[in-house]
Every structure is written in C-alpha cells, then in structure tokens.
Amino acid sequence: MVVLAKAELEQIALPAAAPPTADVRAVDLSAAPGAGRAAAARALVAACEEQGFFKVTGHGVPQELVRAVEAAAAGFFGLAQAEKEGGAGEPVGYGCKQIGDGGDLGWIEYLLLCLTSAGTVPAASFPFSTLPCAAAAAAAASLSEPSSPLR
Q1: Mean pLDDT of all residues in 115-137
Q2: Which are the contacts of 98, defined by CB distance < 8 A and separation ≥ 6?
Q3: Which of 25, 84, 99, 122 is the most buried (most CB within 10 A)?
Q4: 31: which residues sit within 8 A by CB, 6+ positions away?
Q5: 3-class secondary structure, 66
Q6: What global pTM score does this model have?
Q7: In this structure, are residues 32 and 4 in contact, taking their beta carbons and an 8 Å threshold?
C-alpha cells in the first residue's frame, strides 16, 4: 500500500480536461416531398443511430412559439417536486426516475406533451392540461400560423 502525503498529491500534474466539442447534427426538414425529404429522413435516422440526438431546422415552427415553450418548460421544471408530480399522467404528462447503476446514478425528469395538428392542447383529453407548459402551448397556438405546414 502506498500512502501519499497531501503535499505530494498536490504535486501530481493532471492533464487539463477539455470539454468535448458539441457536434450535434442538424436535420433540415424544409425539403419538399420527394428526394429531398427522403434524404432528410435518412439523415435523421443516421443521427439517431450514430449519436442518439439531433437538432431540427427548417421545421416551420415560429420562433415565438419555440421561445414560449422553452420559457414555460423552464418554469415548470423550476417548480417544487410536489407541484411537478401533480402533472403526472399516462401516457403523457410529468415523469421522473432514478437512472443508472453500479455507482453511476442520476435523476431524469421529463414532460411529455401532445398537441393536435392545429397546435392546440386538447384540454379535456389529458390530465396535464392545467400545467403551465400546456397553458403556454395553448396560448402560443393562437400565434399566427407558420408560413409552411408542419411536417
């Protein structure tokens, strides 16, 4: 067994850890039906298989709506745990669980929402319709329609 004094530990030079570069693939959904849309579908599948996530561009969702949903989500996840659990539901709504094993543990929270093609939340259909996120999404749906239909 080797025991190092504190002074000796401080002399050990550790390599500087550089943060990993974020190389998130962008998948553009603005292509018209046909070869362009098929290429976008292949790019999406490749991103899922190779990285597990992707950034969508060309989706036609107004930036005001994106900002409103992001703000509502940040507000929701900032609530006390008991308040968030009030939005639990199946198959949509709030959920949380502990993940990992073998000492590599974490906590994951998620909020699954459902919007109609018109962009509104069917309030009578889902128990989460009173959550701040759902209210913001319903309010944001009243914004002008996107210039191109959502795909």
Answers
A1: 52
A2: 105, 106, 107, 108
A3: 84
A4: 37, 39, 40, 58
A5: helix
A6: 0.51
A7: no
